Amino acid sequence: MSKVTVNEDVCKGCGLCVHACPKGVLFLSPDRLNAKGYSPAVVRFAEKCIGCAMCGMMCPDSAITVEKE
Predict the structure, then answer these.
(1) How far apart are CA 62 and CA 69, in angstroms?
(2) pLDDT at position 54, please?
């Protein structure tokens, strides 16, 4: 199993990671804002992550880290 971590302070809520994930692991938080006023990406279904790291590659701010076990 892989672990996805989103640095919510850096995330600007662009949604590129959400659309890039083939398993639907990430979504934009509808009820939380970071210090910059953006709705950050959050991990919804961590157990579905296959470790492809597409989310991290798509992130223009390098806010996502994917660790493979």
Answers:
(1) 20
(2) 97
Owning domain of residue 48: 2-68
Distances (CA, A) of 50 to 4, 13, 26, 55: 10, 22, 13, 11
- Is residue 52 within 8 A of residue 17, CB to CB? The reply is no
For the chain, the helix, strand and coil percentages under 3-state DSSP, each to the nearest 5: 20, 25, 60
Token couple for 38? 């953006």
Which conformational region is residue 15 in: left (phi greater than 0), alpha (psi within -120 to 50 degrees), or beta?
A: left
User: How is residue 68 written in tokens?
Assistant: 């493979």
**Domain tally for the chain?**
1
Note down pLDDT in tens along the chain; length 69 residues.
Answer: 799 999 999 999 999 999 999 999 999 999 999 999 999 999 999 999 999 999 999 999 999 999 987
